[in-house]
Automatic annotation (TrEMBL), chains A, B:
Lineage: Bacteria, Pseudomonadati, Pseudomonadota, Alphaproteobacteria, Hyphomicrobiales
GO MF term set: hydrolase activity, acting on carbon-nitrogen (but not peptide) bonds, in linear amidines; metal ion binding
Ligand binding (Zn(2+) 2): 90, 125, 378
Needed cofactors: Zn(2+)
UniProt superkingdom: Bacteria
Keywords in alphabetical order: Hydrolase, Metal-binding, Zinc
Family annotation (InterPro entries): Amidase_Cbmase, Bact_exopeptidase_dim_dom, Peptidase_M20, Peptidase_M20_dimer
Cofactor binding mode and count: Binds 2 Zn(2+) ions per subunit.
Protein name (record): Zn-dependent hydrolase
Signal peptide location: none
Pfam families: M20_dimer, Peptidase_M20
Family indicated by similarity: Belongs to the peptidase M20 family.
Length: 406, 406
């Protein structure tokens, strides 16, 4: 079993790095505060005697070659970037558990047939640079690294410049190791495991993600003098889209979710009708056909809105990932490991996007989930009990041990 | 008649001052760019041989004492601050026409019984510091100057500090001259005069203004994993308020207007359900009872919303002004002046707030409107033809001449 004190200590320590003036955890991809987290992680990799490699998109790898000359490695991964005002578990838990598994196997004198690698992928959250899972997407060949490095962030910065600035523009070619298998341990970030009282999830699929940025153009005019009938109010039109998406998702009897997380009005003055509104749309569904239907319904609504409100509408795609099915054999290995430790385990779908969904393009993979209290994530209240964290890490240990030696 | 070349030249010159990097006119109250506009205006007052006075709230006065020893002055006023991405006429036209009227009367050798004063009031727009018409409100005793100087702006600055910084924290007590009468010339900023083909408006009343800032508190959570039924989405709740206000105003058969001009979400990240939404509400109606009804309807909706969406709602009042009736005698003098120059003139209501509504608390006053092409204002496309601008200024000349000598 893993060293729970070491794992929990590191989770707390990494969770203290990258706090802003108000104490909020804000470790956006390739930022100064994320650099501090990366540096700490790298120091732990070095302390553990692992070979450290960084690729061109800034993914960090801790490699334990073991006895595995020439064999493809077993990879454990996740991310250490965060959203704005984040919790301490999302991503970090999986990365630090991966390191913990390697250190445990090393110290127990295991001589695995295959190298074992722990990876921290760049920009999983996608909050600063879209799409999300950027580092693992590039690693798996889904996006050209040169194009990815040119991505302009929400703050106007360029990803490649920022990686160079913080010292994580590595030299290795993304994809330089093709994994034999990939396993990611993560908090569920949703309510299912807690509601059902099950401590472990064997994640067999992951829903599709559609991210769009919508810009609506109307006319600035005076808030006091302009009759309602003469307005081309971009802000009102945006509000209609927000209520349309949400009311539609609520009325449907499907797991479809729709979220507008970002918004801005121009000129954003109290007595000026907004001339422009920009906002993001995050649509998800485990079923690709249904996700397409939702996108089509939004496009049709935007067309109607443009006619009804006399506004211009333009849409930019920020991310689009189809639903992913994980490797059934690895899912069964996760279930078997839970059974062996006497722990209930539920097959389930991931509501969140994860690096595992990208690496699934190049290697068999699956995920392990542990419960999130109240289903809360992307929030400082994010919480998983220590016993649950430790149980998840031990299942990861067992599965990785099997994959690396089998 | 006034010197149209001088007036139109000054409007163009002042309109070029305070442009940002993108060429937008942004001369927010007490900002660096507004200081440039103030300096130019003061230099024109000095060139015209007027006495310049600045009061504690930064209102600028150009005083022509004439022969009027001890008489109350006739005051002409408006403002030179602007909204974001403004047109060049809103406010400046009235101030520069006031100066033009004084220069014309001076150069024609008139010896008026009363002093004539042109005033540029501070922060009429209210975009940076609420409430709007701050300078004239303080001047007329509606708000204590010490309290007003402590106002915190949308950018976190304090009005008093900013006035001191730009050199316009004057020493005169606001209200140091009580006007005998007050007249303000302004572009209509609405569609009425153009639609009716009338070049002049005699403004007999001005609608009530209610400004509120609404804050909605929900829960940040993950956009992918959180079922719609479990969300407390502050952004969605805000969108419901925006559509409620607008749909209600549209459905009513009243002149009520409702505008949400500013909005912000927190944390404002694409895959995070907004934990907080803040937005402004601008409600106006010429009828005080109806305006109260609209405020009550909004309050009731916010209560319903709080229950339905499980969100917290808090409201801050930014401005509240009852509808104002102007002085009938001056309105009739405006109509008479138009008749004498053979120009059609329409009695009308002002949709916008103006300094005249504040000065009406301490002196009889009224306003003159000229047409706004397409009813457009608070927009760089704001436009009034030169002939219309000149006609308005000549009516102002005639009315002021009558008031100062009569
Ligand atoms: N796990 C996680 O929060 N990923 C971020 C990408 C997303 O699902 O929005
Ligand atoms: N005239 C004008 O635009 N005033 C600004 C205050 C307001 O009516 O919103």
């Amino acid at each position: 079993s893993i060293d729970s004190t070491r794992l929990l200590g590191r989770i707390a320590e990494l969770g203290a790095i990258g706090r802003d003036a108000e104490g909020r955890l804000v470790r956006l991809a390739a930022s100064d505060s994320e650099k501090l987290g990366r540096d700490r992680f790298v120091s732990w990799l070095e302390d553990a005697g692992l070979e450290v490699a960084v690729d061109r998109i800034g993914n960090i790898f801790g490699i334990w070659n073991g006895t595995g000359g020439g064999e493809k490695p077993v990879m454990i991964g996740s991310h250490i970037d965060t959203v704005i005002n984040a919790g301490i578990y999302d991503g970090c838990y999986g990365v630090l558990a991966g390191l913990e598994v390697i250190q445990t196997l090393k110290s127990e004198g295991l001589e695995p047939r295959r190298p074992i690698v722990v990876a921290a992928f760049t920009d999983e959250e996608g909050v600063r640079y879209a799409p999300d899972m950027m580092g693992s997407l590039v690693y798996s060949g889904g996006l050209d690294v040169t194009a990815a490095l040119k991505t302009v962030g929400t703050d106007g910065t360029v990803l490649g410049d920022e990686l160079a600035r913080i010292g994580y523009a590595g030299s290795r070619a993304p994809g330089f190791m093709t994994p034999h298998a990939y396993v990611e341990l993560h908090i569920e970030q949703g309510p299912v495991l807690e509601r059902e009282g099950v401590p472990l999830g064997a994640v067999e699929n992951l829903q599709g993600i559609s991210w769009q940025k919508v810009t609506i153009d109307g006319d600035a005019n005076h808030a006091g003098t302009t009759p309602i009938s003469m307005r081309r109010d971009a802000g009102y039109a945006a509000a209609r889209v927000i209520t349309f998406l949400r009311d539609r998702a609520k009325a449907s009897n499907t797991p479809t979710v729709a979220t507008v997380g970002c918004i801005a009005f121009e000129p954003n003055a109290i007595n000026v009708i907004p001339s422009r509104a920009t906002f993001t749309v995050d649509l998800r569904d485990p079923d690709e056909d249904r996700l397409k239907q939702e996108e089509t319904a939004l496009a049709a609504f935007l067309e109607l809105l443009s006619a009804e409100e006399g506004v211009g509408v333009s849409v930019e795609r920020l991310a689009r990932f189809e639903p992913v099915k994980f490797d059934q054999a690895i899912v069964r290995q996760i279930e078997a490991a839970a059974r062996d430790r006497g722990l209930p385990c539920k097959r389930m779908t991931s509501g969140a996007g994860h690096d595992a969904q990208m690496i699934a393009r190049i290697a068999p993979g699956a995920m392990i989930f542990v419960p999130s209290r109240g289903g809360i994530s992307h929030n400082p209240k994010e919480f998983t009990a220590d016993t649950e964290l430790v149980a998840g890490a031990n299942i990861l240990l067992d599965v990785i041990c099997g994959l690396a030696t089998g």
